[in-house]
Design a protein that fits this description.
Chain lengths: ~190, ~80
């Protein structure tokens, strides 16, 4: 079995990298890792709001993917859907565990990360941004997932549908409901739009 | 109470705010590198397969059969 390095650069694409990773090629998995680590981290970060926990969960996503890729079955949806599904499940576990811990005040829940390109850092303690993120995190998991995939990851409705296992029409409907729910949550926590 | 025009306007404003505010967050490069190193240190991808060892099952059956035969032969005849 040849490794991914034996392929020309033009031949390396997600499809054959996934196939070879499924056959046990660590180089192919490395290619997949490089392609998705930032996106998965970004998704996790927006879902939970903590840099340290986002790193921890991102690590778990890739360890789990690495350990189970032999069981991956290509069902004609993007490979990223599988990774987002793992992340989604781990985030659900994290929320379940965090509910068992002591409640902390709102101002302690919003972490100001140290990297210059983190959104909260860019807006420098912007209360508006804090409220917006807090409002998003009060939505149901599927609505959060949709808003993050749409606005952070910049996926189209069709791509989001593939990732979430829903039709494009269902995504449009979910998007509309998510915005209305977000508006209600923002009103509850005192956000005033321009 | 918002009328439908206010609601639509609010939703549009919220959509604009989301579009302006939410940007991809890049992880710390050292985190990316460290995780990649840890993953690559695993020598091979563990492909999970059903654990079936027919040779062990055959050996077990053979041993049990042998033990039964020995026990039957050594059993005192009444």
């Amino acid at each position: 079995m040849g490794s991914i390095q034996e392929y020309g650069l033009n031949e390396i694409n997600e499809e054959n990298a996934v196939r070879r990773a499924c056959e046990g090629d660590p180089e192919a998995f490395s290619f997949i890792y490089e392609r998705y680590v930032s996106r998965i981290y970004s998704y996790v970060y927006y879902r939970i709001g903590s840099e340290a926990d986002a790193e921890d969960i991102t690590s778990r996503v890739f360890y789990r993917a690495f350990g189970h890729i032999g069981n991956y079955v290509d069902k004609g949806v993007p490979f990223s859907a599988w990774l987002y599904r793992i992340a989604h499940n781990l985030i659900a576990n994290w929320h379940r565990d965090s509910h068992r811990r002591k409640e902390v005040p709102l101002e302690d829940q919003i972490e100001m990360p140290g990297h210059a390109d983190h959104p909260e850092r860019v807006l420098e303690k912007s209360q508006e941004m804090e409220l917006l993120l807090h409002g998003i995190r009060r939505l149901s998991p599927d609505r959060q997932q949709l808003l993050i995939l749409k606005f952070v990851e910049d996926y189209s409705n069709a791509e989001i549908g593939e990732i979430m296992g829903k039709s494009e029409g269902a995504i449009k409907s979910l998007y509309h409901r998510a915005l209305i729910a977000l508006r209600e949550e923002m009103t509850k926590i005192g956000y005033q739009s321009d | 109470m918002m009328n439908s025009f206010d609601e639509l306007s609010y939703i549009n404003s919220l959509e604009k705010k989301l579009s302006e505010s939410l940007r991809p967050v890049r992880p710390d490069p050292s985190f990316i590198h460290t995780l990649k190193t840890k993953l690559s240190q695993r020598s091979n991808i563990n492909i999970e397969r059903p654990v079936t060892h027919p040779e062990l099952i055959i050996l077990g059956i053979g041993l049990l059969t042998g033990a039964l035969i020995v026990w039957l032969m050594r059993r005192p005849k009444s």
